[in-house]
Amino acid sequence: MASTSVSRTVPASPQKVWDLIGGFDSLPDWLPYIPESTALKGGRVRKLANPDGDVIVERLVAFNEAERHYTYAILEAPFPVTGYLSTLRVHPVDGRDDVAEVQWSGRFTPDGVSDTEAEELFAGIYADGLDALHQALSA
C-alpha cells in the first residue's frame, strides 16, 4: 500500500476553513478541478465531475465536526489505484487564530503504476487543491 500527505498553512481561522471545506459536498466551493458535485444517499456519497467530464464517486466513511476532519473512500474514478482512503483535516496553529493548517492525506494500492507514480499523482492533486484553497481564502 502506498500513501502520501500534503499540508498547507492557509490565511483563515480553523473554523472559517472548516466552514468552507467541511461539508462533504462542498468541493466546488473551493476546488476548481471539481466544478460539480451531486450529493447522493443522504449526503454520504458524492458524485463529482471534473472539467474533462470524468466521473468520480466517493463515499464518506468518517466525519468529526469537533476535530474538523473527514475521511472518504473512492468508489469509482479514472485513477490507477484501488482501495483509496483519504482524510481532509484542519488543524489550529499554536498561538495563532488567523491561520490554520490543512492536511490532505491518502493511502491506496497502485494498479498498473508504481507506488512512486501513484504517490506523486495524489501529492500533486492534494498540493494543487490546497493551493486553490489558499487562493480562495485569500480573495
Automatic annotation (TrEMBL):
Protein name (database record): SRPBCC family protein
Species of provenance: Streptomyces bangladeshensis
Listed transmembrane segments: none
Domain of life where this protein originates: Bacteria
Cited Gene3D superfamilies: 3.30.530.20
Any Pfam family matching the protein: Polyketide_cyc2
UniProt-listed SUPFAM superfamilies: Bet v1-like
